[in-house]
């Protein structure tokens, strides 16, 4: 007896999914809530959690979801490198390089538009302006964790000189990574250039 029956499979569809399985996969991709996706796809609300678990184990449903995730990731060009770069931009943002304060309020410095992602809010009040940045320490923690530096820092007892050395090393590695990521990436429309010897 097959674990996943193949009845009601639409032979015109190459993915081998029933209409309800496909509806579940599409709904699941919307919000990643399995039980709610099963209910919206037409499964019984009473057994939706069990149906969702079973559907997520189904190879064809899993393949459909994974293919959609890959396609979404390609469209967004989302990668670990891009996530690290965004966190690094937040972690190393410096208010002084982003804006200059004038009597008329904060003014964006020339060439600082790229760093403005670090600005969380700008508030105007009677006496002037208040500018606040996103949580830099949280982004720095995320970057060190993604680059594997956090583990090295936690293995040793606290030594101020070592912390300074590791901090410099982290900053140098991040700056090198940012410089590498800032290089233009060839798009699929642009064929790679081959230099002739």
Question: How would you portray this structure in words?
Answer:
With about 200 residues, the protein is mainly alpha-helical. The protein folds into two domains: about 20-75, Terminase, small subunit, N-terminal DNA-binding domain, HTH motif (Arc Repressor Mutant, subunit A); about 85-180, no CATH class. It has nine helices and four strands. It has a two-stranded antiparallel ribbon with strand order 1-2. A two-stranded antiparallel ribbon has the order 3-4. α2 (about 35-40) crosses α3. The longest helix is centred in the C-terminal third of the chain and has 22 residues, at about 160-180. The protein is elongated, with a radius of gyration of 25 Å. It starts with 18 loop residues before the first helix and ends in a 16-residue tail after the last helix. The model is unreliable at about 1-5 (pLDDT under 50).
